[in-house]
Design goal:
Distance between the termini: 15 Å
Radius of gyration: 17 Å
Helix content: 10-25%
Low-confidence stretches: 99-111
Strand content: 25-35%
Number of strands: 10
Mean pLDDT: 81
Shape: globular
Order of helices and strands: HHEEEHHEEEEEEE
Largest sheet: 8 strands, mixed
């Protein structure tokens, strides 16, 4: 993600002065395109192809990874419910990632497993929610630092923005 772009998105903020979800989606997509290795691709608004009535924000088919983005804890439970039984993305977990390969001894090995995360972008110091499938990404006021927390609120990464290189690196 580009910290300079985020900090200068002054016309893309809500009345509460936080960036709209769509800004985070564009930056997530741009970052995904630039950091994924050759042969991996990020797809947007995925759903119809797999028979879902919903549209995932992002999907990396080679890894069976899917992502929904939210901001400021808004509609958090609604996004999580989409992946739970009865949710619009629940069927994806049964239709995607079931590719199997036969080994020499006739044993099947599951090569891919459908995985999902709801990523919640919140300003540093804002209360984080914990839930299975939820990652929180806290960002500094100047968008020059981000902290990533897993499902159980364990920090799994701290990143600083290198302005000259226009990218975040692990601290």
């Amino acid at each position: 993600m580009d910290g300079t772009q985020l900090s200068n998105a002054i016309y893309s903020k809500s009345a509460e002065n936080d960036l709209y979800e769509r800004v985070w989606q564009f930056e997530f997509y741009r970052a995904g395109k630039t950091c994924l290795p050759d042969g991996l691709f990020i797809n947007v608004d995925v759903g119809h192809y797999f028979g879902s009535s919903g549209f995932l924000d992002f999907y990396i088919p080679q890894l069976c990874w899917s992502f929904e983005l939210v901001r400021f804890n808004m509609k958090l439970e609604e996004h999580l419910d989409r992946f739970r039984k009865g949710g619009v993305y629940y069927e994806l977990s049964h239709n995607v990632g079931n590719e199997r390969e036969t080994m020499d001894w006739g044993i099947y090995v599951n090569l891919k497993r459908f995985q999902w995360k709801v990523i919640n972008f919140i300003p540093a110091g804002h209360p984080r929610k914990m839930n299975n499938g939820l990652w929180n990404v806290e960002y500094s006021e100047k968008f020059d630092k981000i902290w990533v927390f897993d499902d159980w609120d364990k920090m799994i990464g701290e990143f600083i923005y290198l302005k000259e290189e226009k990218k975040f690196v692990r601290k």
